[in-house]
Design brief:
Length: about 220
């Protein structure tokens, strides 16, 4: 008999509904439970097991625009790929979410990309937007936190703002297994410095606007 394939952990339909409802009502969704505990454990081991040399200094912008700017962010990143088991499972999980959100909200999400991020003590990411209207295809941002027993005074909160507001709308501790998903163009946000290492997976669902610059495309 063939050994059965390990089941791919996926969110429940109820959780998909809940995420979609939160996104419609407030533009962001927070999930505190839902990820398979064994997947979380493997992702945590994976990111902690990477050497410093496996990470790259994070930049701002993509491709040729990618600038290193340590006044804005000081974290290090490593993109996930399908060649590692835990990374692959996570990517499949997010693929399930992509399809579920498209079904519920007709968002036309085309793909998803993500990286591990390591913020060493004192690292930060100043207030920014993940997407600018018309200039990027990032539609939804999602951050999963992988930090056990985060304490109140460890710092490292994600602060999220409404545009033009000085007071944050939300302050979120980067607790193990928590994920926040939000509209990339709508919410400026920042990562405060922490007293301890802070690990996460930050990713983006994107739309395909490769025809965006083509006027009157041939049929
Ligand atoms: O880690 C976080 O809480 C947010 C990270 C972030 O804003 C980003 O990578 O664009
Ligand atoms: Fe961001």
């Amino acid at each position: 008999m063939q050994p059965t394939e390990p089941a791919i952990p996926t969110f429940t339909e109820e959780l998909y509904d809940n995420i979609a409802d939160q996104l419609v009502e407030q533009g962001y969704a927070i999930i505190r439970r839902g990820f398979d505990p064994s997947l979380l454990m493997q992702l945590n081991q994976r990111v902690q097991g990477l050497d410093d040399g496996d990470f790259q200094q994070a930049g701002i912008g993509r491709g040729d625009d990618n600038q290193l700017n340590e006044t804005i962010r000081t974290d290090s990143i490593r993109w996930l790929t399908h060649s590692n088991g835990a990374e692959c499972q996570f990517l499949q999980c997010m693929e399930g979410l992509r399809i579920a959100l498209n079904r519920r909200l007709f968002m036309g999400l085309f793909d998803y990309e993500c990286h591990f991020a390591h913020y060493a003590p004192g690292d930060f990411y100043k207030r920014h937007l993940d997407a600018f209207r018309g200039r990027t295809n990032r539609v939804l941002s999602a951050v999963l936190y992988l930090n056990h027993e985060w304490q109140d005074d460890d710092g490292g909160e994600l602060l999220m703002y409404e545009r033009k507001q000085k007071q944050p709308l939300l302050s979120l501790r980067p607790e193990y297994g928590t994920m926040i998903i939000f509209l990339s163009e709508r919410f400026p946000h920042e990562v405060l410095a922490a007293k301890r290492d802070r690990y996460s997976i930050a990713g983006w669902f994107r739309v395909n606007n490769s025809l965006g610059d083509v006027i009157d495309p041939a049929r």
